[in-house]
Fold this sequence. Notes:
With 174 residues, the protein is α/β, with parallel strands linked by helices. The protein is 44% helix and 14% strand. The chain has a 5-stranded parallel beta sheet, with helices on both faces. Helix 1 (28-40) links the parallel strand 1 and strand 2. Helix 1 packs parallel to helix 5 and helix 2 (56-66) packs across helix 3. The relative contact order is 0.16. The site of 5-O-phosphono-beta-D-ribofuranose (RP5) has 12 residues, from strand 3.
Amino acid sequence: MNSMNSPGSVSATGQPVVGVVMGSDxxxxxxxxxxxxxEQFGIAHEVDVVSAHRMPDEMVAYGQQAEERGLRVIIAxxxxxxxxxxxxxSVTSLPVIGVxxxxxxxxxxxxxxxxxxxxxxxxxxxxxIGGARNAGLLAARILGAGEGEEAARIRxxxxxxxxxxxxxxxxxxx
Length: 174
Ligand code: RP5
């Protein structure tokens, strides 16, 4: 783990508004990209391991307490029988973004289908297999859609980021 925000940590600045959780330490090489995207937009977040199967009581408590602790979005990554994002979505009203983590078997299709096939009424915004960076960017967009100065700051930064993407694409086309 070479990021400052490894599991168990809290990002340097301010009260965390995004919780980045994963089923195992072994998910971190994939999930780190979510933390780095949040870092890029200066969004305070916490990173933790919360396994749906191996620590179910802690997982339920995490989801139930997330809102009162000040979190506004949860990013949850898991692999295989990837129940963590869906179970968190069932115990919180916060938006949950699911990241299917690819394991050695089945190339992450098992993780994807476990996360994306939620029953009606319990949504999980599912990104692509291994798409943790997009999960971080989507969390930034969700926070940027709100009211107030911090949301406006994030919207401005997202606009600049999108302009940079466009410029890069133009440069590649030349
Ligand atoms: C899942 O089992 C985790 O999210 C991880 O992707 C997978 C394997 O976990 P470890 O056996 O590496 O701890 O719950």
